[in-house]
Write a structure and sequence with these properties.
mainly beta, seven-stranded mixed β-sheet, 50% strand
Amino acid sequence: VQLQASGGGLVQAGGSLRLSCAASGRTFRLNTMGWFRQAPGKEREFVARVTWRNAITYYADSVKGRFTISVDNAKNMLYLQMNSLKPEDTAVYYCAGSPDLVVVTTAAAYDYWGQGTLVTVSS
């Protein structure tokens, strides 16, 4: 499975962005998809996850109510709608996929990774 993330950019605080992640290859293997982010000098952190087939979602507390993760498995696409962005949301965002039903928030649970897309939120 190959993942390609896109949609990052520069936005003012309070603004919105939508990230996309295109999946290709043996996408039938996918069970759980997630978004992670990594700010400069910090570890990669969990943002949100969704099950590929029945769209059950789970969010980090820091983004709950502001971000929405979704899938369109007919198009092999994963999305992250980000609203009410804050400067502390600035990071490189990565999409990830797993053939397993993931119930933890650790990056090690995912086998497939996109290349990352930079989101910068100015104050």
